[in-house]
Amino acid sequence: MKLVVSDAGDGTREDHADWADAKFITDNNEIIYLSDLKEINYTQGWNELGKDKSVAGRILTLNGVEYDKGLGTHANGEILYTIPAGAVRFESVIGVDDEARENGSVQFIVYAK
Ligand SMILES: [Ca+2]
To answer: What is the pLDDT of residues 35-61, one digit of tens each?
Structure first.
């Protein structure tokens, strides 16, 4: 699976992109958080991939809601994962982290293969 964040066409300034609560759900209703898996690889426009934290190292926060789990990244970038055996769904809350205030703008794309 490939998770892509692009700059939404207006540059990457403050594009702190959160895949909050990002998880696979299996056919047994088991939850597998992406941040507990090792990605195949990733690229991103600034800093390192945040596991259970924002790209700037803070608590993942979207519209005032804090998330314990998830990925914090930065446009432009992509993250590659092997889909775990038995996984039938992917779910995530997405958005520009509150740490970017009103400044970021990002497009999120999910490729299942
Ligand atoms: Ca942008």
So the answer is: 999 999 999 999 999 999 999 999 999
Average pLDDT taken over every residue of the chain:
97
Rounded Cα gap, residues 84 and 68, in angstroms: 21
Based on DSSP, count helices (H) and strands (E) in the chain, helices before strands: 0, 11
* Separation CA 71–CA 47 (nearest Å): 13
Which residues are placed with Cβ below 5 angstroms of ligand 1, an ion? 7-8, 10, 15, 105
How much distance in Å is there from the Cα of 101 to the middle of ligand 1?
A: 13
Distance of CA 46 to CAs 13, 27, 76, Å?
10, 36, 8
Indicate the SS3 state at residue 16. strand
Ligand 1 centroid distance, CA of 42 (Å) = 19
Q: Locate 30 and state its tokens.
A: 């088991």
